[in-house]
Amino acid sequence: MKKLKALSFFSGAMGMDIGLEKAGIEIILACESEKFIRETIKLNKPKLKVIEDINQYSSNEIKALAGLKKNEKVDLIVGGPPCQAFSTAGKRLSIKESMGLVFLKCLQVIKDLKPTYFVIENVRGLLSVPLNKSGKKIKGGTFEFITNFLKDCGYKISFELYNSANFGSPQIRERVIIVGNKNEKLPHLVPTHSDDSKFNLKPWKTFKDACKGLGNIKHSHVTFPEKRLKYFRLLKEGQNWRDLSVKLQKEAMGKSYYLGGGKTGFLRRLSWNKPSPTLVTDPTMPATDLCHPDKDRPLSVEEYKRIQEFPDSWKIFGNIRQQYKQIGNAVPVSLGRAVGKLIVYHYLKKSIRIINGFKYSRYLKTSDLDWNNQDQLKLSL
């Protein structure tokens, strides 16, 4: 049977795409608005067609640029529209605001090109972003609008909030993934790893697993300010600000000491024998510190690549800050591979394993199986 071909939008440094390729799917077009990220794609995939801002092209132009004939079927569209608009750490903008607008364009392309499958990936915050309807803000309304729009296009969809560690990534990273097909609803992704031995899966991979062989190489990294380093020198692997004396906690945290929340990202050293926390776009951000387990420095670019599972040979264009940003924003390769494997197995009509009782998410109502927002939200594109 033929090899499935995919159009990749908001491709970034191509973590998702590498994973899809590992599952046997061919990427025939990438789309990325930021120039330095396009240079990363070209460095690694010089023969791949790369286009710029999705808003600059009609759906038919995109299809032609991908090398597909007018009547040729599109197998798969995959994309992770910019998530900053929906991030729980951001302003929680709705789909009609700011960068949410490119999400609408992505939906329109799916509607126009009618791919056999589509995959949309985004942050957890997308599930709870409000949407204005008749002057009322409806929690989860943005996600409700997206899923209703796709259903109106004739797709049967499944979605869940997945932890990448359950698919072989050495990182705790949660992402919403929506999968659609016009013939039937696909099951959820098949986990390969777990922190619960009762499922008889492989144990979660650790930071130590990820960084094997990196001990003697030259690492590229930024530095912590000295005022923070003096506290890191007092902490052991796996510790954070809470492991300091109360006097030093107050000194180190300042006004943040009196704020609510767990604040576990402050002055955080990673553990060797646990998965990495979610990589961010800068390992020196005070509330999401990513300090090496025993060295007095942030994680390096080389460690970032290993945690996100990029090949060591994968080149990242730009200065060190741009490299951190590209890698930190990527989809872990193992999660992309799990998505690709699900689609390929469904296409080939191969049996897809269902693991009864497996808990994908630590939150409630993150799945098509228990999502119960009853508001029917329709907005014209």
Keywords:
globular, two-stranded antiparallel ribbon, Rossmann fold, alpha/beta, single chain, 381 residues, 11 strands
How helix-rich are the residues, as a percent range? 25-40%
What is the class of the largest domain in the CATH system?
Answer: Alpha Beta
Number of helices: 11
CATH superfamily of the largest domain: Vaccinia Virus protein VP39
Question: Which residue ranges are poorly predicted, with pLDDT under 50 across at least 5 consecutive positions?
Answer: none
The percent range for strand residues is: 5-15%
Q: Note the overall shape.
A: globular
**CA radius of gyration:** 21 Å
Structural class: alpha/beta
Topology, pairings included?
Blueprint: E1 5-9, H1 15-22, E2 26-31, H2 35-44, E3 49-51, H3 59-65, E4 76-79, H4 100-113, E5 117-122, E6 131-133, E7 136-138, H5 141-152, E8 156-163, E9 174-181, E10 193-194, E11 202-203, H6 207-210, H7 226-232, H8 246-253, H9 301-308, H10 320-328, H11 333-347
Parallel strand pairs: 1-2, 1-4, 2-3, 4-5, 10-11
Antiparallel strand pairs: 5-9, 6-7, 8-9
Structure report:
This protein has 381 residues and is of the alpha/beta class. The protein has 2 domains: 5-202 and 331-347, 3-Layer(aba) Sandwich (Rossmann fold), CATH 3.40.50.150; 221-299, no CATH class. It is built from 11 helices and 11 strands. The strands form 3 sheets. The chain has a 7-stranded mixed β-sheet, sandwiched between helices. Strands 6-7 form a two-stranded antiparallel ribbon. Strands 10-11 form a two-stranded parallel sheet. The protein is globular. The mean pLDDT is 92.
